[in-house]
Amino acid sequence: MAATKTSKSPEILSIFMDSVLEHEKFPLSVYKFCKTNEIDEQDFYKSYASLDTIKYHVWQVFFDNTMGLLHKNKQYDSMDRKDRLLTFYFTFFEVLLLNRSYVLFALEGNESRMTKIGQLKKLRISFKSFASELIEEGNDNKTLSLAKHPVGLFSEASWAQLLFFLKFWLDDTSPNFEKTDAAIEKSINVAFDVFDNTQLDAIFDLGKFLWKEKFI
Question: Which residue of 68, 84, 86, 107 shows the fewest CB atoms closer than 10 Å?
């Protein structure tokens, strides 16, 4: 897709995503990408150090857009931790849905698994920071130090959970991705039951759901 010369990274980002989908492959060089899309190479380097940094930035923008939408919701800040996390996930996947074709290509293309996961490095940092804030808030509510949970360990578990939801969503063929919504809700209930040391009913409920959907 031809485009006018620009130094604005949002426009370069959009051109990059369109180019990937049109050509069904990632650009192999900055030179070829810029020449094909009529972007001055100097302008490109004002925004991005390499093509890989654009891949990272795509996922950072998905996260930033999600957080922007959350903070526009006047009720968000008054929600409890569980509802804030649920709202994050539902909003995040709404943002991904607007870009599903790109997400499908990026995560189900011909690249190696490590390359695919590597695209998410900035998303991982931002999401773990977000999750850490929720975990620290939960720890603040615990009077016994033994009841507090390691922030690093639990934020990493939260990241693994996000990757699980991504895989579930990519494979979901239900109307309006209803099964993904159900998986998110049940999994978050389990996570908070474990974190808050409550009953294990939700764990069995999640297990039955995943067994039925053949995800375990």
Answer: 68
Single pTM value for the model: 0.82
Q: Which tokens hold the place of 42?
A: 């100097």
CB 61 within 8 A of CB 47: no
What is the rounded end-to-end Cα distance, in angstroms, of the chain? 42
Give 126-145 pLDDT, tens digit per residue. Answer: 999 999 998 888 666 655 44
CA distance 34 to 44: 8
Residue type, 66: T
Q: How far apart are CA 125 and CA 168, in angstroms?
A: 21
Give per-residue pLDDT as tens, 182-202: 999 999 988 777 666 544 445
Among 213, 188, 186, 170, residue whose Cα is nearest residue 82: 188
Question: What are the extents of the domains in the chain?
Answer: 9-47, 52-213
